[in-house]
Specification:
Length: 307
């Protein structure tokens, strides 16, 4: 069977790809700007920030391919679709952010120890061009973060949401760098650089653990949030007034898609064709609402439902 996309799936795939592409362009702009500034000023903090923006650009370009692949229709090798590719990508990004945060923590602690031991830091952050550029970079990172988060939630894309978290880290890094540069330029206390970096790196690590946990839960078929389950049940009950009960309700999430499996109790005097129509209506409505797969089992009212 050939890979293909339905009309709605194709539209969502293009939207997700465009969101990732715009993020990549913004990251490229920041990377080039910071690299240029590094050659002008020789500032190491700018060079490190340029490396971070370059990494952001690469991740966004990879995500552009991931979200396209994840929205391909199921085939004979992947009967449940390709959605977990996004969860894997999100897990990788979360781990990458945590690794970078730990590296910053180690470097910050080492520099703080050196200062407390009487070793002075050779830092020159008196160039206000650096501060001005980091302020601009912070606004660009904030825009990309919001852009990816909105599209990620709208399209139920773990990869875009993870990328939004990545750019939020970049935003925090730009803000912390701006504060450090201003405080150092005004006060001359170079120890503020590693102290501020340590505080923000701990915040970054803390936030990234939530991203990793969510990705692992999806890969492990963790139960979906209770509010989504209740919304799904309400939709099912609203499809036909003859539905007496919903039981043995199970659900999981794979990428942007939800998979539902449950039983409904129907009056035992219904004809087989009537039951078939009710079940098909449930599956169509729920599939359309959550862009997923639905399996419904019908039980007659004479049979006591299993919880």
């Amino acid at each position: 069977m050939l890979h293909k996309l339905t009309k709605d799936g194709l539209s969502n795939s293009k939207t997700a790809q465009n969101a990732a592409l715009i993020a990549a362009f913004c990251a490229a702009f920041l990377a080039i700007g910071k690299l240029t500034l590094f050659f002008m000023t020789g500032s190491l903090i700018v060079a490190l920030s340029a490396l971070d923006s370059t990494m952001d650009m690469v991740v966004s370009l990879v995500n552009r391919k991931i979200v396209k692949f994840a929205r391909l229709d199921p085939d004979h090798n992947h009967p449940y679709g390709h959605g977990r590719a996004e969860s894997i990508a999100a897990l990788g990004q979360g781990s990458l952010i945590i690794g970078g945060g730990i590296a910053i923590v180690v470097s910050s602690v080492r520099q703080i120890y050196d200062v407390l031991s009487g070793i002075s830091l050779e830092v020159n952050h008196s160039d206000w061009k650096q501060i001005a550029f980091f302020i601009i970079a912070a606004f660009v990172s904030l825009f990309v973060t919001k852009w990816l988060k909105v599209n990620g939630l709208k399209l139920k894309s773990p990869a875009l949401i993870a990328d939004a978290e990545h750019y939020k880290v970049d935003f925090v890094t730009n803000i912390s760098s701006t504060l450090a540069l201003i405080l150092i330029a005004v006060s001359g206390y170079t120890i503020l650089d590693p102290v501020i970096a340590l505080i923000f790196s701990m915040y970054i690590i803390y936030g990234s653990f939530g991203l990793v946990k969510t990705s692992i839960n999806e890969l492990m078929d963790h139960d979906i949030p209770e509010e989504i389950k209740e919304t799904a049940k309400k939709i099912v009950k609203g499809t036909d007034e003859r539905i007496l009960d919903i039981h043995r309700f199970r659900a999981r999430k794979s990428g942007h898609r939800y998979f539902f499996d449950f039983h409904v109790t129907l009056p035992e005097d219904l004809l087989f064709n009537e039951v078939h129509i009710i079940i098909e209506n449930i599956e169509n409505v729920l599939s359309s609402e959550f862009e997923g797969d639905v399996i419904v089992h019908a039980d007659p009212s004479s049979v006591r439902p299993e919880k």
